[in-house]
Input
Amino acid sequence: MLKKKIVLAYSGGLDTSVIVKWLQEKKFEVITFTADIGQGNEIIFAKNKAKKLNVSRIYIKNLKNEFIKNYIFPYLRSSSEYENFYLLGTALARPLIVKELMKISFYEKTNFVSHGATGKGNDQIRFELGFKYFNPKINIIAPWRIWEINTRDKLLNFCLKNNIKINKKTKKFSIDKNLFHNSYEGGDLENLFFEPNENMWENTVSNQISIDYPIYLSLTFKNGDLIKINNHCYNNETLLLKLNKIGSISGIGRIDIIENRFIGIKSRGCYETPGATIIMFARKHLEDLVLDKEIFYLKKTISLKYSSLIYNGFWWSPERIMLQNIIDYTQKYVNGIIKLKVYKGTINIVSRYSYNSLYNQKNSSFNQVSEKFSQIDSSGFININSLRLII
Ligand code: ARG
Output
């Protein structure tokens, strides 16, 4: 019998390594795809592991620049978190992985794809909405939803039996890493009283040992995107890596949160997003300076929807693209330079400058007379606005 080809989104981690074996047992010819989105050494481990697992082809693609240019930067333009805190580092990477994986499935002429996301989380939805968007006829094998290995402990046992090596930390948490963030979930974190040990965090140091002097930074934005640090141009990857480094040694961008998953379960996660936390902070200050008041409020309203669309896996939906267009339109004003002071887990603004600035000292000053309006007019403004309250 001819084996069916299947393309697996392969991280080299625990779950997807077990899935390779399991799919092979089910008589699939397994092809792995690993997206290099800045997870460092893990790429080499993934490659070696895939070789050991005897997969029939290994695809690895460097997508770092595309990740920043077409996913991270467009999202940052929204200046919005998912719910209160989350900067969407995992949710943003999934649509890109999906797009590239689907290219491979077309190239390999197969209608079978697989991923390692569980049946409880968001990633299954993100993968599969994307798969179906690119190929409505796709057959998706999501082992976590159908196999007998339904807990993490059973998974670890399967590895022991099948000689699949795993690193120590993978045993403790479910980790997702890329250029933008690291996320940690599961394990001891499931207990809300558990305070993570310092050695869980890989991307940032704690404030106790973060460097002992403030770092001054100047960030230049053009049409909403970061283009310079301290007046030097760098490519996107270097921009982000530099800020990750600065954020990391200054203890910036750690969060420990409860979030609502799409399917309605609350979960706890820890995230570290050093560089993007700095960019987000600077961008927000720049937008405060340059955006027209009504544009600002409209943008803020739609951004709540926009970030939940991304979280829920609707990156490729028409409504996400529509909102993106609106957001991008507002960014033509977002040009300028924000100077920051980064120190022991805090970011402070030092100064802001923009040739699109709508700030006018005469208008807001306590000491100067505005040329644009007279204070007498404010009486009428208040009279009319208080009418409803009086009536
Ligand atoms: N809770 C986050 C999200 O839904 C992070 C998910 C991390 N994924 C993982 N496989 N560990 O975006």
Observations:
- Residues 90-91, 122-123, 174, 176, 183, 185, 269 surround arginine (CB under 6 Å).
- The chain has 14 helices and 14 strands.
